[in-house]
Write a structure and sequence with these properties.
Length: about 200
């Protein structure tokens, strides 16, 4: 399989973490849809990363679709439970984590526009989403070892990816101090090679 993405994309990192946890080999092709010579639009009509190209050349896109496919490919280290209420909760955690990343990416991109063209209200709205998401995550996690209790799941990998993106792009958001239980979970996840080996960088 071939994964197309970048070192800065949190959605690409999430897929890379899952591939590592599942011990699946793949070719990592660096490409950004923002580059003038990007091939991403030729593979994904939405022009977004990551894209997982299967052995038969079928492209899969949207990180949530990709990670669920990967988890179903091999039986080891299952990250999603069987279809039931628990699976819905795991996917809710993932949706929340991805939503936090959506808001963070939106704020970052708006901040890169020329100062006179930036919308302060838009940036503040995204930061408010981030703050509410962190608060909700912290309350839901409580004193549990992992999002779903005692075992690691896709929920934790998604949350860890989102928190890692905040560390990378928004170090001024001191969520570690305001939400120590999230910080404890993140530190635990960073001890795993899948996380330590995929730290985002420019």
């Amino acid at each position: 399989m071939k994964l197309i993405g970048s070192h800065t994309s949190p959605y690409t990192r999430k897929v890379r973490i899952v591939l590592a946890e599942k011990k699946i080999e793949y070719d990592f092709v660096i490409d950004s849809p923002w580059a003038n010579d990007s091939k991403v639009p030729d593979i994904n009509p939405l022009g977004k990363i990551p894209v997982l190209v299967l052995d038969d050349e079928t492209p899969l896109f949207d990180s949530r679709v990709i990670v669920e496919y990967i988890d179903n490919v091999t039986p080891n280290n299952k990250l999603f439970p069987a279809p039931n209420r628990e699976r819905t909760e795991v996917k809710r955690w993932e949706a929340l984590a991805d939503g936090l990343c959506d808001a963070a990416v939106a704020a970052l991109l708006e901040g890169k526009r020329p100062t006179k063209e930036q919308s302060t209200d838009w940036i503040e709205r995204q930061h408010a989403k981030i703050a509410r998401s962190l608060e909700f995550m912290s309350e839901e996690l409580g004193d549990k070892a992992f999002c779903m209790g005692t075992h690691i799941s896709m929920a934790d990998l998604a949350i860890g990816t989102a928190l890692g993106y905040l560390c990378f792009r928004f170090p001024g958001i001191e969520w570690q101090a305001t939400h120590p239980n999230l910080s404890k979970l993140y530190d635990k996840l960073m001890q795993r090679p899948a996380f330590a080996d995929t730290i985002p960088h420019d």
